[in-house]
């Protein structure tokens, strides 16, 4: 049957995820994005401290506002990770832009593949990641739902921010010189700054990136909106105003 839309208790099925970390200021950190308690936190590129000015320019645009290093995935246990993501808007899955800022989603990894390649490693299938949206990506269509914030997963189109935030590193250090796809081996995480290394290693240890037979690679998920857990809002500094209408974990 038809999948219930976001906003109901139902799950959205058949979408897939990517990963990235470009150090840029998250778009939900600008004022007046969505319907939230405050803008999402960003951090000063030089000091790493939380920035109080939501109008500060992005480090990817010559400014000092950057993604906070503590927004990398944090495993809670063997079957649950907490983290952050960009909503990939423009597909038919109900994610539609700034309104998604601050919203949290429970992602359950499935066994679906991209035909002849990729998908979740068997050890990832059935595990859960709970993410809060702090960025919006407009460069995608179709069944791509979330771009997970994972250090070492690829800088994508914005290759100047990380090197500006972490002097002494070149842009290739942040994704093993592979801007789309990132590091293919765990040892590559050693090139990242120490603040980002554990998040990069999570990609191999918990998420099983390319561990066997080309999996994990851009895994499919079922997802539903949930009330944001305090573990995430205490990091991001914001939450949706309608959060109490959604199930707690």
From TrEMBL:
What region holds the Glycosyl hydrolases family 45 active site domain? 17-237
Q: What class of enzyme is it?
A: hydrolase
One example of the protein's molecular function in GO is: cellulase activity
GO biological process annotation, one example: cellulose catabolic process
Q: Which Pfam families match?
A: Glyco_hydro_45 (PF02015)
Please provide the record's keywords in A-Z order: Carbohydrate metabolism, Cellulose degradation, Glycosidase, Hydrolase, Polysaccharide degradation
Which reaction(s) are listed as its catalytic activity?
Answer: Endohydrolysis of (1->4)-beta-D-glucosidic linkages in cellulose, lichenin and cereal beta-D-glucans
Q: What Enzyme Commission number(s) apply to this enzyme?
A: 3.2.1.4
Query: Carries keyword Zinc-finger?
Result: no
Family affiliation: Belongs to the glycosyl hydrolase 45 (cellulase K) family.
What protein does this entry describe? cellulase
Organism of provenance: Zooxanthella nutricula
């Amino acid at each position: 049957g038809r999948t219930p839309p976001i906003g109901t208790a139902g799950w959205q099925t058949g979408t897939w995820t990517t990963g990235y970390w470009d150090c840029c200021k998250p778009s939900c950190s600008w004022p007046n994005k969505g319907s939230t308690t405050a803008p999402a936190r960003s951090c000063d590129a030089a000091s790493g401290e939380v920035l109080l000015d939501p109008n500060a320019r992005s480090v990817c645009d010559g400014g000092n506002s950057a993604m906070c290093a503590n927004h990398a995935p944090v495993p809670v246990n063997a079957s649950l990770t907490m983290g952050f993501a960009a909503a990939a808007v423009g597909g038919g899955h109900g994610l539609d832009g700034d309104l998604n800022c601050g919203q949290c989603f429970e992602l359950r990894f499935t066994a679906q593949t991209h035909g002849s390649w990729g998908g979740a490693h068997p050890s990832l299938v059935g595990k859960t990641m709970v993410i809060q949206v702090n960025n919006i990506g407009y460069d995608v269509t179709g069944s791509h739902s979330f771009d997970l914030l994972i250090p070492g997963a690829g800088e994508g189109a914005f290759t100047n921010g990380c090197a500006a935030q972490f002097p002494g590193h070149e842009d290739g250090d942040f994704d093993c010189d592979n801007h789309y796809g990132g590091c293919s081996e765990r040892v590559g995480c050693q090139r990242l700054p120490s603040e980002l290394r554990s998040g990069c290693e999570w990609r191999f240890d918990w998420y099983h990136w390319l561990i066997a037979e080309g999996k994990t690679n851009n895994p499919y998920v079922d997802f539903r909106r949930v009330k944001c857990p305090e573990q995430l809002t205490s990091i991001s500094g914001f939450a949706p105003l309608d959060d109490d209408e959604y199930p707690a974990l």
